[in-house]
Each structure stands twice: as structure tokens, then as C-alpha cells.
Write a structure and sequence with these properties.
- By secondary structure, the chain is an alpha+beta fold.
- It folds into 2 domains: 75 residues, Roll (Ubiquitin-like (UB roll)), CATH 3.10.20; 84 residues, [2Fe-2S]-binding domain (DNA polymerase, domain 1, Orthogonal Bundle), CATH 1.10.150.
- 33% of the residues lie in helices and 14% in strands.
- The protein has a 5-stranded mixed β-sheet, with helices on both faces.
- The chain is globular, with a radius of gyration of 16 Å.
- The chain starts with a strand and ends with a helix.
- Bound molecules: FE2/S2 (inorganic) cluster (2 copies).
Length: 169
């Protein structure tokens, strides 16, 4: 089955078995191995990518469902020589140990910051309207779909908080 979409701004066309997940299409067919397969069951968030600006567990989504979509993976954010602000703060804050969850954490944080800017509430928001201050509890709740087996959570939240504060200035 043919499917065409943009990945990190580049047009890509694939001919896939309809059962191939978006994660496997990215990793095995496009050699974009930054997105990780942690559980393959929608439980860890290591495979998080953005699809049309929204975070998606790519292990739970079939590639052929994304005809015409704009997909962003960790490879589309920055480069080793020119890290984007979240990537830089994860380094500065020691927001990882083994690093396996890190691409998913950063992609999820990218989507989460956009959701917060747009006024999407979380389960711990005081109000369902308006924007919420990104407190530690807000960040923890909004990032709760991304597990870190190394338990770098305080440093991950600090990195995200720094970027959120910088964006407000
Ligand atoms: S690999 Fe997709 S959620 Fe774990
Ligand atoms: S840094 Fe090892 S799983 Fe998160």
C-alpha cells in the first residue's frame, strides 16, 4: 500500500504492508532510528513523534494512516552542532542517563509546550480555560506518558521548565 508524507520537511513515499507501524516505517524503512522502541505497546513514550504538531505514540499508529501528514522526529529538531533549546537544556540539566527515553521525552516536551501555550488544560490544572503556569506538577502530569527507567525525572522537568521560562521572556 502506497503512502506519502513529509518527515522533517522532506517528502517521503513508501510502499508498505498496511500493518507496518509509523515507528517501524521511520526506523526500518527511512533509517530514522532516533525514535526508540521501548515497549511497542503505547506504555513508555520512547517512540513519541509529532504528527501535524501533535504528539503521537508512533508504535500505536499505522504508517498508512498518515497520508499527507507532516511528521517531525528528533532528527528534525536540531543537530549535534546546533542543538535546539530543549536538547541543550537536557544536556545542561543532566536530563538523561542511558538516553534511551530521551528522544521521546524531547519530542513529547516539544508537543507539550505547544499544547500549554494554546491553553490546553491537564488533569492538575486549576482552570479548564486560559493558560496554566507550568509548575513542576503541571510538567510532571503533562509528561506522564513518557517513562524513564533511569528515573531522571527531576532533571527532565528542570530542563523543560527552563525552556518554558525562556519562551515567556
Ligand atoms: S514504544 Fe511506543 S509507547 Fe513504548
Ligand atoms: S535516561 Fe535511561 S530511560 Fe530515561
Amino acid at each position: 500500500m502506497k503512502v506519502s508524507f513529509h518527515v522533517n520537511g522532506e517528502a517521503r513515499a513508501l510502499d508498505l504492508d498496511p500493518r507496518v507501524t509509523l515507528l517501524d516505517a521511520l526506523r526500518d524503512h527511512l533509517q530514522l532510528t532516533g525514535s526508540k522502541k521501548g515497549c511497542d505497546h503505547g506504555q513508555c513514550g520512547a517512540c513519541t513523534v509529532l504528527v501535524d504538531g501533535r504528539r503521537v505514540n508512533s508504535c500505536l499508529s499505522l504508517a498508512v494512516m498518515h497520508e499527507g501528514s507532516e511528521i517531525t522526529t528528533i532528527e528534525g529538531l536540531g543537530t549535534p552542532e546546533n542543538l535546539n533549546p530543549l536538547q541543550q537544556e537536557f544536556v545542561s540539566c543532566d536530563g538523561y542517563q542511558c538516553g534511551y527515553c530521551t528522544p521521546g521525552q524531547i519530542m513529547s516536551a516539544t508537543g507539550m509546550l505547544a499544547e500549554a501555550r494554546e491553553g490546553a488544560p491537564s488533569h492538575v490544572s486549576d482552570s479548564l480555560t486560559g493558560t496554566s503556569e507550568l509548575t513542576d506538577a503541571e510538567i510532571a502530569e503533562r509528561m506522564s506518558g513518557n517513562l524513564c527507567r533511569c528515573s531522571a525525572y527531576p532533571f527532565i522537568r528542570e530542563a523543560i521548565s527552563r525552556v518554558a521560562e525562556a519562551e515567556e521572556k
